Amino acid sequence: MSDEQTGMEPVGEDARIDTLEQRLKAARKREDERIAKPAPEESNASYREGNRVLAELIGGLAGGAFLGWVIDQFAGTSPLGLLVMLFVGVGVAFRNIIRISSRRP
What we know:
Elements: H1 15-36, H2 41-75, H3 78-102
Helix pairs in contact: 2-3
């Protein structure tokens, strides 16, 4: 038999390892508390309002473009109806965004 160590033996207790384990447990506990805490209601309201503004902008552009395309198909005024209605859609979207932003909370 040889006196060589195979690396499988348990490591002796070290104060640094104990303090590291304690710090890891404390960090895990803080992280679990942070994750479990619900977000404030104010941030959810702001998020919803931002989504509504984005939807108004995209809806105004898409709606105006679609209506312009339909007008072009029936009237035969190829790019003119699309361009005019696209600008009208942008105007309506901006008007709705200004309405949303001027409301009192």
